[in-house]
Amino acid sequence: MATTRAAVVPTAGTSAAPADRKQIAVTNPATGEAVGAVPDQTAAEVDALAQTLRAAQLEWEDLGPRGRARHLLNWLNWIVDNSDHVLGLVHREAGKSWGDASIELMVCVEVINYYAKRGGKFLADERRSIHGPASFNKRLRILRRPYQLVGVITPWNYPLAMQMMDVPGALMAGAAVLTKPSEVTPLAWAEVVRAWNEEIDAPPVLGCATGAGETGRAVIEAVDMIQFTGSTRTGRAIGIRAAERLIPASLELGGKDAMIVLSDADLDRAVRGAVWGGLFNAGQSCVAVERIYVEAPVYDEFVHRLVAEVGRLRQGHDAQGAFAADYGAMATVDQLAIVEHHVADALAKGARVLTGGRRAERGLFYPATVLVDVDHSMDCIREETFGPLLPVMRVKSEEEAIALANDSQYGLAGSVWTSSPARGRRVGRRIETGGMNINNAMTNVFQFPLPMGGWKQSGIGHRFGGPNGVRKYTRQQAFVSERIPLKNEMHWYPYTLAKGALVRRVLRLTGTHGWKRRLGRTPS
Questions:
Q1: 415 and 520 part of one domain
Q2: DSSP E strands: which ranges in 103-201?
Q3: Among 226, 232, 334, 230, which Cα is nearest to 285's?
Q4: Is residue 30 part of a domain?
Q5: Which of 56-60, 76-80, 482-486 has the lowest mean pLDDT?
């Protein structure tokens, strides 16, 4: 499909923006060229969109899981049929390589299919067994009702995939969803939300609010539950406001994922895993490999192979469909500045650059950079880099590697590389992270039956994965009904001596321990 559509993408779920509306320009960070623009919505406009979504939610919920799944699958079909157009927006607004941009389609396909197929099962009523004689005539169930309006706020690193990790589960739950993409990369997501509302005859329960900080704050004020992905600093502020409003917040925040290469690792695989896990999307992933600990016996060989493998990478912004570059540009000037600071800080404290280490003259490109002689006093080890930086540290033993990996405020994911499955399990289970990969990098994120979430300051709750990827957007209702209709209950009024004596006798027989107590005797 052609990729030269209008540069201005109207805010999905609303009427087209007035001509005098303030716009946010979107530029390609690789080339500096204009890609498009979106409206900078005010709080009043966000509130109006929220009310529109709420008005359609009950009808959406009444469709049931099967009816909702049908619309989600129609949406997926549209995205696949128009993938050149949608991925073209991702490619240009984020300055990605075409290969990195294309992987975002895989997330759409897998997430929507996973929850559309299993959503009915995840939302089915749960039956619970009675717990004692007082419940003998009761049917116990757990019912789930969605939050009416869920807010989803995402960062700029994956314009399409970030929202797709959250929105299908919320829609399957029966909620209406108000999304807010980053103002840096809003175009692809605004387009697929437009398609939901204009192309597939779906109920108007999905909206896209575009804008900067004021818009995001308005979303938090308008919804009944918030899912946020982004920095720990912003997540903390959102969590505080959600607590003040007494609404739940699920927060997936920063990461500083450690890669542990043990002495018995397959070095060929470990090196390739480090390169892809650390440099995919120019390192702009919350679960990217950000620090590497290598046991001393294989350290020199690992570093030698790592530098050689990095040297074979192609960085650039290739043409759409070309697959002529491996990874592309940094998304923002500020993020590029963080990478530069981390390298400068490391060099000032004694680290060495083996390859890379200096930004390109044009575009927001930073070359793949391998740092050695690093330690835990350096910002490149302590703070989230979110860029194409691979700091490598020699360790004496697996015990030292475990201690250093855990010496971090973050705990999102990590990896252990070894030829021994038992050793991998032993070391991996001691790392304080929400996700762990043995002989792979970042892959836990794509195993949708598993929960994805962080420990420590990497977040609260699990973002998606398994039944919780739908259930988190619902409220539990304890549902009690009677098996046999009775005129009265034993504990209802009026109280009598006879009824009281009978209740005590039954409690002794069924609730105490030891035959003497059950018979009413006190053991000596």
A1: no
A2: 126-128, 138-146, 149-153, 176-180
A3: 230
A4: no
A5: 482-486
DSSP codes, 484-517: S--S--TTSSPP-HHHHHHHHHHHHHHH--SHHH
Given the residues 45, 104, 183, 252, the one annotated as active site: 252
**Mean pLDDT, range 331-353, rounded to an integer:** 98
Give yes or no for residue 10 having a pLDDT over 50: no
| Residue 261: strand pairing partners | 294, 417
**How many domains does one find in the chain?**
3
* 286: annotated active-site residue: yes
- E strand or H helix that includes residue 455: strand 455-456
* 169: its two tokens: 């589960």
Cα distance between residue 147 and residue 164, in whole Å: 19
pLDDT value for 12: 46
> Alpha-carbon Rg of the chain, whole angstroms?
27
Whether residues 219 and 156 share a domain: the answer is yes
In the predicted structure, residue 203 carries a pLDDT above the cut 70 = yes
CATH number at residue 195: 3.40.605.10
Contact yes or no for 215/40 (Cβ under 8 A): yes
Q: Could you tell me the end-to-end alpha-carbon distance of the chain, in angstroms, rounded to an integer?
A: 87
**Are 240 and 268 in the same domain?**
no
Catalytic residue among 286, 290, 309, 384: 286
My answer on whether 351 and 389 are in the same domain is yes
The token pair at 342 is: 């981390």
Closest CA to 440 of 415, 418, 423: 415
Say whether 263 sits in a helix, a strand or coil: coil
Give the closest residue to 274 by CA, choosing from 421, 389, 422.
389
Same domain, 159 and 272: no
Question: 252 catalytic, yes or no?
Answer: yes
The reply to whether 150 falls in a domain is yes
Pair 263, 358 in one domain: yes
Q: Are 3 and 85 in contact (CB under 8 A)?
A: yes
- Torsions phi, psi for 39 (to 5 deg): -65, 145
For residue 313, what are the domain limits?
257-446
Same domain? 387 vs 283: yes
Phi-psi category of residue 470: left, alpha or beta, with phi > 0 → left and psi -120 to 50 → alpha: alpha
Under the banding of pLDDT at 50, 70 and 90, the label for residue 430 is very high
